[in-house]
Amino acid sequence: MATRRKLRFGILGCAQIATGSVIPAIAESESAVVQAVASRGLDKSGRVAREFGIKSAYGSYEELLQDPEVDAVYIPLPNHLHRQWAIRAAEAGKHVLCEKPIALNAAEAEEIVQACRKAGVHLAEAFMYRHHPRYEEIRNVLQSGEIGELRAIRGSFTYNDASDTSNIRFRSEWGGGSLYDIGCYPLTAARMLFDAEPEAVTVHSLFSPDHGNVDMMSSGLVEFPGGLSLLFECGMWAYNRQLLEIIGTKGLIEIPMPFNARTEDAGFIVHGENGRREAAAPGANPYTRQADQFAAAVFGEAPPLYEPEDAIQNMKLLGACLASATGRRRVEL
User: Fold this and answer.
1) Which superkingdom is the protein from (predicted)?
2) CATH class for the domain made up of 7-126
3) In what helix (H) or strand (E) does residue 155 lie, and over which residues does it extend?
4) Of 126, 169, 175, 209, which residue is the least packed, with the fewest Cβ within 10 Å?
């Protein structure tokens, strides 16, 4: 039996999301492998390479992009570096899996998309939760009519990391703040589940002078066509909480841990006309599924889960949310 071809990833940076989640997940993948890792110093990338059995380590991102054995790159760098290195990777002929949010604004996202199209490489924004099979089951429930017609979604994602004042998430010029870090999860979930683009937003935020004046907590209303709405809250200075509720005319779907579920916590709860039931869903590592689906798109075995333009739409929404919060006004898209 022939050995399955594997997409060879290079990792641009040794951020915790890479070492703690993405690199181990790719190691479990059927269709991808980590070929190389780079940092701004060989000491750090060398340690990571030894720890995970990665073939090549580089002391600069430029060197990794020159490696002919690297097919694709994963970019876990701070948000303000995404545009630069995604474009440079595309120009080097590498497919690009970039951490969310893909850029600092919609214009940068557009530049990245165009650079990847010009180079003929695949581009995806790394919202791993969208790859979890539980959302296929949730869509089935929605299509069945069990909770009636959709009316609204409520989403919460908060944690408290305010004491770590050196955190890069507290630097506004680097794309810091709770909207960019975790608000993008309920925002993308609403776009995904409504299968529509928003019309307007109203967001109220707590901006902290002790944390680079980024939004440490944001609450908002996102208006969708047909009277549909998302009510959301996100924060880096609040009690740890994750929840997504999909509200219909006859019931609702309650999704615990909507953005970090793995294997044991994949189920969700349906409240319908016949009462409450616990719905099962297949467990999976969403980071591994993300790598496999990215490779399938690159190899032409399956269409991408989302076209690259989805990332532009996401940045338009994030930009509108931030404009609303800073201007204390409703912003139309």
Assistant:
1) Bacteria
2) alpha beta
3) strand 150-160
4) 209
